[in-house]
Every structure is written in structure tokens, then in C-alpha cells.
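Archive transcription. Copying these from loose printouts into the bound notebook so they stop getting lost. Printout 1 of 2:
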Amino acid sequence: YIAMERKLLKWKPPGTWFERLSGIHPADRQMLSRGIGLRMVRSGVACTALVGSYFLA
């Protein structure tokens, strides 16, 4: 019985290694990947503006 329980307890958490590491649930994958492009553009523009204002000052 103990060997059978050990076999049943060896379950793998769902999702890829990145999802497990960051705490993202696999069901939220579509929702997160839809808006990631816009967020990347926004953060790139904000970073460029911040660094540009530092160099121009």
C-alpha cells in the first residue's frame, strides 16, 4: 500500500516551468499573452522617454 501511495503522490504541477516559477495558472495563458505586446511597447516607450530625458537634461 505504501508503494502505491507513493506512486499516486508523484504528481507533477500543471504548466510549463516558467508558469510554475512565476505562479501563473495555465488557464490564464491566453489572457496574459493577448496583452503582452501592448505592455512591451508601452514599457519600451516609457524607458526610452526616461533615459532620453536623463541624457537631454
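Printout 2 of 2:
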Amino acid sequence: MEDQVVATLSKDGEVIKRIVGLKMHNKWWHEYGLNTMGKLLRYGASVDGGSATGAGKIVKMRLGSQCSDTAFTYITGEEEDTTNTHFMSGSGTQVTFTSEWAAAGAIDDICQALLRINNYDMDLVSDAACYNFGTQFDKPDGVSLKIEWTTTLSPA
């Protein structure tokens, strides 16, 4: 299982900067992460048969400022819904989680993306996986941000 995260900064429809994170392995946490990912890769982007709010569905992405693989520092207020897509081919199965931040307002010191799911009790949103870009970047006011997190499961 391999993860890659790409951040795209755009102004007036034109890309002004693209941050392509390194491909990483094992970014998913056990209880909520790996169990969820297994279901997503097997059944598709909406685990529970199409419901947008089912248990185990990735629903949010947060931004963090700590360049760490073991800790996450939430940039307060910077959480958006995700759009999830699922693709299967002979070379593997992919799920992509996409979140977008509007152009209004600046966000400083972005270094992490965190995926969040509806937990099994459906009463909380729980953390599922954290990605560290390895370098901080800023989203200036007037510039939109789109983050695409793609997880690929390749046959052994």
C-alpha cells in the first residue's frame, strides 16, 4: 500500500505552485485507518454502499503545521470535507481523497494533511491517517488550495 499527496495552489484558475509529496508507505493508523482502507479498496469510495455519511467513510481532511510523522499539530479551523474516488485496474486499486480550501484567507506553515473518518459508532469523526510533506508551505490570501491524497494497493 502506497500513499502520495499532492498540494496545488492556484490563482484565477492557473496553477502557481505544486507540492508533490514523496511516496510513502504505512501512513494509516490501525483501528480506523487500515480497517477503513481495506474496505475502501475492496468496496469503493463510499464503504457502506453509497451513503455519504456511513461508518468508516473518509469525510474530512485537516491541515497541520508540524513536520512530523509521529505527531500532528492542527491548524485551527482548517478542515474541509473530502470528495472520494475509487479506481480499479490490472495494476492495482486506487482511492483518492480530495479537499479544497477557498482563495479567501491565508494559511501559514502547512506541513501535514490528516484524513478523518466517521467512526463505527457514528458519533465522532476519528483520525485515520497523517501525511507529512517534509517541508512547510503557505497558502496566501487570494490563492486556493487543493490537496489530493492517493492510496494505491498493488498486487503482490
